[in-house]
Amino acid sequence: SHEGSQNKMGNRLSAHPSARAGGQEEGDRGSGLYLAPELQAKINQDFDSHILQTEWNEYRTLHLQRHEQREASSSLREEELRQKLDTFQKQAKHVHNKLDEAVDAAKSQLVDLEVEVGYNVKQLGKKFEGSLLQSSSGSTEGTCLDVRAELSHCYNTLRDTGECSILAQKLDKCVTGALKSSL
């Protein structure tokens, strides 16, 4: 019997050609295709190779698609960050401009205050006919002139406002003291 040497192809049984030698065609319903074992192995190998190649191509295609998606996503994130940075820079510039305006307004008020204080000191000097300029010893060297000069210098150089405030209080005490002593 040649059942052990038969190879199954499709729905038909194919017998090795040597098993069919001598014209024996038992149970065969017509002519069939008989393959040598080496050819059958080559066909199987080609088939397996084709499957592997197909799977590789599918993997490569999916990998490339994922790579392109990551690149697109990265570009979107980069653009979003660039827009956020631009927005932040515009906001920072706006805030900086407002701060500059506030500083300029404060400087302007300071200059106005200095002019006003200078004017008031001159008016008080005229009103009390120089009594502010006389010290307790009766000399014309002004007791409050030094403090006034320091305060004026402080405002002109825009040093520490706390220091200028102290000098303003010192001038106020000096003027108040001079006024009290002239009564």
Which labels suit this protein?
183 residues, two-stranded antiparallel sheet, disordered N terminus
Overview of this protein structure:
The longest helix has 91 residues. This protein is 69% helix and 4% strand. The N terminus is likely disordered. The chain contains three helices and two strands, in the order ββααα. With 183 residues, the protein is mainly α. The protein has a two-stranded antiparallel sheet. Helix 2 runs antiparallel to helix 3.
Topology, number of strands: 2
Quickly count the helices: 3
How much helical structure, as a percent, in the residues? 55-70%
Percent of residues in β-strands: under 5%
Amino- and carboxy-terminal Cα gap? 149 Å
Short summary of the structure?
The protein is mainly alpha-helical and 183 residues long. Helix content is 69%, strand content 4%.
Could you outline the blueprint of secondary structure elements for this entry?
Blueprint (H helix, E strand, L loop, with lengths): L5 E4 L2 E4 L21 H91 L17 H13 L3 H22 L1
Antiparallel strand pairs: 1-2
Helix pairs in contact: 2-3
